[in-house]
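In keeping with the milestone schedule agreed at the kick-off meeting, the structural modelling team has produced records for the first pair of proteins. Each record is given below as a sequence line and a structure-token line. The laboratory manager (R.T.) confirmed that both were archived under the project's standard naming scheme.
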Amino acid sequence: MERLQKVIANLGYCSRRKAEELIKLGKVSVNGIVVTELGTKVKKGDSILVEGNILDNNKNYEYYILNKPRGVVTTTNDEHGRKTVIDLIDTSTRIYPVGRLDYDTTGLLLLTNDGILANKLMHPSTNIEKTYIAKIEGLISPLSIKKLKTGVIIDGYKTKPAKVKLRSINKKTNKSIVEITISEGKNHQVKKMFEAVGHHVEKLKREKYAIFDIKGLNVGEYRKLTFKEVSTLYSLFK
């Protein structure tokens, strides 16, 4: 048995303090009965309704956004003893990354133990958009940008149309910074797309994934998704 406000917070709906406010305002019910007493305790299987939203108290799902550093592998364990993204999250729950980022790629990565949501996000048919910032060798031309936008041939197939924006060029260093948004998730896709138009990617960072970005998260930092964020993610597939 656990205190109701703690359970609501652990399920990601809101903070514990906010949960206490909602309880006192009569906006929470347990098994169909409105609860206003902060000392109320609940158990697994109890039906909890908060502001009309049903919370699933039978499942202990956790959802995280991580700003992945370079030199960390996107896997649950590594046979070579390298640090993994799981090592960066302080939880005893067995979570796993949604998709992957290369060893030398930084940026936004989702992790969870919700297999249903993870599979939906990774399925090719969902067309989840992912935005990357690439530092590339050479001064990219308008023609190359147009090719990336319309699709290039990699590994024997043509990539789907992409959104591409030139951020900056540096003639002194012979480098370009390019923003690219894709809706596929092929292996090393962004790097291969730039190689297809004659540019090697020196650095790559994923800034956005679906509805999320990494604003406010320093490299190596993470945060839990809120209940409303998870609900919004699920709503993408309705």
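The second protein of the pair:
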Amino acid sequence: MTALAPAVAAALLAAAPSGAPARAPADAVQRGYAPVNGLRMYYELHGPAGAKEPPLVLLHGGGSTLDTTFARLIPALARHRRVIAFEQQGHGRTADLPDRPFTFEQSADDTAALLRHLGVARADLFGFSNGGTIALQVAVRHPALVRRLVVASTLVRRDGLAPQAWEAIRRGHLEDMPAELRQAYLAVAPHPEQLPSFHAKSARRMLEFRDWTDAEVRSISVPVLVVAGDRDAVLPGHAVALARLLPDARLAVLPGTDHDGVVRGRPGWLVPMIEAFLDER
């Protein structure tokens, strides 16, 4: 893996956009806000409402928005199935609760509460980076809600992240936040003046990351597709170890692909793999 610049600290928590990818036509998207555990959570519904499969729920990277993580993937994923995309506490259009820290466990509970609010009894989940860790937490804390999981560039142990990345996170300052992520936050946040707090809380969640036990990982019995890049900041060996611990897992390591590129750079590879996995019987 090449050396990581200090500004990569925030980028490790999200996939930054490149250009302005086309989104689904406005009349094909339903947008709204849901009362979720004290939040006013922003969500979007894409794709055919009458699809028979369980919906696919998208969990964006930390420090990101649903657009900066998934804009290139939503149109393809929503062609044949219902897609639910939403923004976690303090991210994007979902206002923060200043006295509540960002935690993976709370985000999992918020995800489950949103699905129940929308009347979804069971779903497939696709999480990237922090979103992947949240997806695994949903499977542990709310197993009845989960049919299948796709987790990309996902951390369950601290030693799975490159040492340079930890150092960048520890030393990172607001001015190191990638311009694309800063601009995305300021463009849609209900309280853009909270950017410093948002940055600090995002870093703190990572710095306080708790290792999962083998038993916790093995308790996830649903099928899981584990995806990583061979140049990922979440080390490929960590993805291999995660796949081996899970009772029912498939593994895909994308060649020539770094952390951001897993969701942004390889839609032609990723979408067919996800669709084939979700369509397995």
